[in-house]
TrEMBL record:
This is Glycosyltransferase involved in cell wall biosynthesis. It comes from the Bacteria. SUPFAM superfamilies: UDP-Glycosyltransferase/glycogen phosphorylase. InterPro entries: Glyco_trans_1 (IPR001296). It holds the Pfam family Glycos_transf_1. Residues 241-386 form the Glycosyl transferase family domain.
Amino acid sequence: MRGAGIGRAITSAEAPARLLDLTRLVSRAGRAEMTGVDRVERAYLDRFLDDSTPFFVLVRSALGVVLLDRAGAAGLAARLSGAVPWGAADLAGRLSWRSQPARARAEADLRRLALARAPRRGLARMLRAHLPRGAWYFNTGHSHLEPALFAALHRAGLRVAVMLHDTIPLDHAHLCAPGSPARFARKFAAAVRGADLVICNSEATRADVARHAARLGRVPPMAAAPLGVTPAPPAALPPEIEPDTPYFVALGTIEPRKNHALLLDVWQRIAADPPPGGVPRLVVAGRRGWRNTDVFRRLDALAASNGPVAELPGLSDGAVSALLRGACALVFPSLAEGYGLPPLEAAALGTPVIASDLPVLREQLGDFAVYLPPTDSYAWQEAILRSAEIGKNAQTEAGVQGRSVPGWAGHFNTVLSLTV
């Protein structure tokens, strides 16, 4: 069966070239907040720009596919970081993305930076003209995963590595945005049938992927490579936060899977029967997502008039680090996770973590966190009040120190040793 191995034609210690798909990251041009998946794509871009292996970028645009060489990839990286502003939209961009001016400018710059462009049906021919056989294609963003892509890559003599971050849409469809489970199922099937290597962020995710892949008739070669965790240097606290008032942080998109409803239940009870030390605040840091109308309504009520809950979307990475560093604990009652970056970021900063008892969190955090059932709000209330009474400083003095967390060097050592 094609794809049974991952080193078919190349015997040297390094791949002849790498091709990174940045379709997802370019599609999010102009958005203030980066998701965990966005950060992974960016980490791959930075890593591949940092070494001498020939490097190219592929992006699916409204007008076909665009190929960038190393110089073009560096120009794209500068624009994605904000070091260089996006240029003006061209006519094609304005016509393709009338309601998304940032996307129009991004795709116009792609065309200006391009080494080559082609309609989608011409992808294999374009790749054969510019990349050596045996090069590796990397897709870490769940975008552009379709059978036609994999067929074109293999016709061009490339090998394919795909990162699957989780199988949540297959296991918990009711927690996902409308339409996303069906879309993910198609992408998942294309990936496990067409990939020469599937990269997973944890052993728990690898087991989930293997379980679903077996039902499709092919379990591809897989590797578990934990993602790097690199909290930003703390900046100033957001002005809404009073450092002398105990507070807890819930970090992540406000969507059903993150289980903010449990936290609001807890804080409503605490506010109705305040403890002797007063009501600690809950800081909800993240943008509003989907299927959460009741939670949004309750957030509006609890956040009104300097209430016990503060909602702070759009924070910078430095502000998030400052927020976590000063918190009594990160509260993370998620119902399902593929990796769980916020608890690891908190742990790296020495901030206690109260989290759902999920296998992937135990795998990454060990005995650092307090684990609770994500449906037992009274157990969460007891743990939160106990943590507020102790206080962050006292916990640190008692021995709660930053936990050693996975780094990107270890991740890439694993991945690049398998893609040669």
